[in-house]
Each structure stands twice: as structure tokens, then as C-alpha cells.
Amino acid sequence: MALAKTKVGILTFGDGRDFLAAPLDPVTSEFTRALRARLERDGFEVVVGKEAICSNEQATGQGRAMSAEGVGCVIFNYAVWAWPQYTRMAAQFCPQPIVMYAGFNPKYPGLVGMLAASGSIDQVGIPFYKTFGDLEDAATYARLRARIVAVAARSRLRGKTFGLFGGRSLGIDTAVTDPALWMRKFGIDVDHVDQMELVRRAEKHVASGERVEAAVKYLEKHVRKIHWTRPDATMRLTPELLRKQLGMYYAALDLCEEFGYDFCGIKGQRELTEHYATADIAEAFLNDPYGPAGEPKNPIVCSTEADMDAALTMQIFHEIARTPVLFADVRHYDGGRGVWDLCNSGEHATYFAARSMDPVANLAKTEFRPEGFYFPAGGASVYHIAAPGRVTLGRLTRSADTNRYRLLLVRGAFQSFGAEEDERIAVGIQDNWPHAFAKLDCTPEAFIDSMHCNHIHGVYGDCAEELRVFCDAAGIEVCELGPAK
Questions:
Q1: CATH number at residue 134
Q2: Same domain, 265 and 376
Q3: Which of 5, 97, 199, 202 has the smallest number of CB atoms closer than 10 Å to its CB?
Q4: Strand partners, 191
Q5: Are 253 and 175 members of one domain?
Q6: Are residues 314 and 447 in the same domain?
Q7: Is pLDDT at 293 greater than 80 in this prediction?
Q8: How far is CA 251 from the centre of its chain?
Q9: What is the pLDDT of residue 1?
């Protein structure tokens, strides 16, 4: 997987007095170099302004240059006293909020410059975040990094297109969003596609066999077990059905490439699940960092049941974590073990089976099992147990005021009780769907009281601070659940 690096700009601000230009240049240059080196060491692509900004002309010129470079976030850097007007002039051309940084440098009033500049842009309504301290201090850099990641993630959403295959599934109202709201709030367009187009294109892929047959051979070699059934079985998984499912994957992939869909959702129920084949294979591998023939690709967020706010939540998580994102139902709470079973058809990316970017490692822990009685058309469900590890989970929902989004945010860990016990638990709940056994950092009562949706999403690791900053910048309320006090 080769996701593009997050592109970050640096504009360094200086003093407008001519006689100070020469003596201050070494100071501003050194602090700019240090900031650039720290960011590049962390994997960011960095674009630096031509020189320290010491005039309105330089401020507007370099602000426009940052916009032309397509940076997702610009750091306004203060190493010395800087005239606040330059910040205000440059900021109007840069992604917002502005991330302001003053390094630890008591010999020069860089902190003074940042504080004065923050007041200047506050007066005109330009949002910002301020960070002060030594870049080599872990806490200082973590705070700065979270703000960079969150602002860049928000910037990357603008201009994206969501491919909506189908419409509302099974009367799930929380899956449906007004496209105008997305455009107004996030700059995202929504394009509707009938599921018939998935079927039409899938049939063409099955008939040609070029990509589908390669995928079948790869999966037969690397999936731990494919539970084939007879064609007349009540719950069927046949080579013909698997080929249909793989055809839908390549159909969805083609549509995303042809029409520029950055993320998508597939209705599935009831048309596909009752009359063609389930979309589980397509959904899982779209979310994966590789295709069903092991071919590397960037994950394409895909939500089942065409859940739009699920896809939006997942896309935000993906922009921040840059990894595949979980989609699951909140299926059951096991009080004896203290874990929630997060389980939904075959929608979990196989990445979660071993927490690996290597398809072979994940598929070795994955089985294709026949769909159950919910889906009479049949096909494969992508069964596995999510690998253990700390996770951040969340879900965007809307209240009666549909312009008001709220993010439920909770941290926890996926648990494993050993292969045999994990299987036994899964069989007792849903023996053919993937499971993530999640121990949350909150009480069951607090979670139930706050969770106003059946679908939840998340990633490995702790990205709570980045999500808090993202929501603050986007005007989203955060409901964060933590340990009982």
C-alpha cells in the first residue's frame, strides 16, 4: 500500500523592520529547518515558504503559493517577534484552522509573536490552534502532530465524491443523509448508482473470467478454508456464487475508478442478498489494502447497507489513521467476559484478521463460510476473529437538527481468548460472520445510553486526540466515553 504522504506547509514569520532582516535570518532559518526535519522524520511531505515573511506582499504571495501546492495544513512558525498583520494576510489563503507553532527559544520573542498573531486572526474569525514548546519534547510534538493530522484530514475530505450504490436498506434511517448537508459541511458530493449497474458489470467480469479466475485461484490457495456446499444446499456457497461476488468487487472498483468515487456504500439488502449474491466479498476487499488476487491498492472505504454516515465516519477515521477501518454491528455484550461482540456479515476487511498489510498473513486466519438464512441468495461470508490490540471506536450520528453532527468516541481493546475459545464464542452468536471482541474503556450502561446507532467503526491505535481536533474544527459535538470515576 502506498498512500500519499500528508502534505504540510510551513510559513515562517518575521519582523518588518529592514535593519533586523540580516541578524534575524539565521534564527528563523534554523528554527524552520528544525521543524521541517522533525516533520519529515515522521513521514510528512513538507513544503516550505521561500523566506521569512516580512511584508504584506510576501504574506499574500506565500499564502497563495501554499494553496497552489495543495497542502492539507499550514504551520505558521514563530521563532522571533513577527508583525501580526502578516499572519492575518497569509491566513486567508491557507487551509483552516491554522496550526500555529512557537518553538522554545527564550532569547527571542517568538512566543510573543504567536500570541499577538493569534489575537489578530481571532478578530477576523479565522480559527487556529496554538502549540508552544520544544519539538524534541514528546508531549509537545504529539500535540502539534495531532493538530496537523486532523486539519489535513478535514482538508482532504473537501472535493471527494461518495458513490451510493442503491439506497436505504431495511428501513435504517440513520444510514441516510442529505447530500446537501455533506456538501455544505464537508465539501463532499454524492453520486447515486443503481445496484443493477453492479450486477451488469459483475456479469461481464464473470463472463470474461480474466480477473475473476485469477482471484479464485489466489483465494483457494491462501484462504484458510472455503466451505463449499452443494448447489442445492439451503445455505449455499458454490464456485458460481463466489465468482458473482468477485465480479461485484471488480465492478465496484471499476465504477470508483471510472467516475472518481473516493468512497462508497452498497445497499445489498434486499435485492442482492435475496436474488443475486451478497456483496460481502466486495465490501471486505474494497476496505482492504489489497484486492482478492493479492494485488496491492489503497483501501476504498465501503459501507454495507449503503450507510452514508457509516461511510463518512470511516472515511474520517481513514484520513486520520491511514489504515483500513472497521464496520460492525453492536451485536451483543458478554457480561461474563466483559466484551462487546462487534459483528456484521462479511463487511470486516480481512486486514483485521491479523492486523497486517500482507494479504497472505490475513487470509491464513480467514475462512469463507456460507451465508445464513438472512441472505437466501447465498455466497461467501468473510469469517475471522479480529486480532487483539488497542483500538479507537466511534460513530457519527445526527439529532433532530440534521445540521448538527455528534461523534460518539470511545477507546478500548480487541481481545482474544485463544483460537478455540474465540471460535466457541463466535459459534454461539453467529458462526459465519466476522467478530471483534471489544473491551471498552467505559461501562456497558454508558455505552448503551450514548450509542444512537447500530453500526460502529474504528481503527487500531489511539487517534482520539486527532478526532477531537477534527470535530472541533468541523463543528461536530464529541461525546467521549471513558472509565467510570
A1: 3.40.50.1070
A2: yes
A3: 5
A4: 163
A5: yes
A6: yes
A7: yes
A8: 23
A9: 47
